[in-house]
Design a protein that fits this description.
81 residues; 8 strands
Length: 81
């Protein structure tokens, strides 16, 4: 089932919630454990392009189509001289 931008995905059993920021043809799920999710962090699925934003933190790992999602690094901006 495709994900849609703006869709909130609560994982009540783990106490975490994410919001889709870029939709695509991927199914997002979560499993317990891992490094934990922090509010404001963005994760993406490189295979499908799906991106999510963590809105409720907790000890969980995000998966897209059964594969772990990767943490997006903040974009570096040019410094003004």
């Amino acid at each position: 089932m495709p994900t849609k931008p703006g869709e909130k995905m609560p994982f009540a059993d783990l106490g975490v919630e994410v919001m889709v920021t870029k939709g695509g043809d991927g199914e997002v799920s979560a499993t317990g454990g891992g490094d934990g999710l922090k509010v404001g962090k963005r994760y993406e699925c490189e295979a499908t392009g799906v991106q999510v934003l963590v809105t409720k933190p907790g000890d969980a790992t995000l998966l897209c189509n059964g594969e772990p999602m990767t943490l997006q690094e903040p974009k570096k901006t040019k410094s003004a001289d």
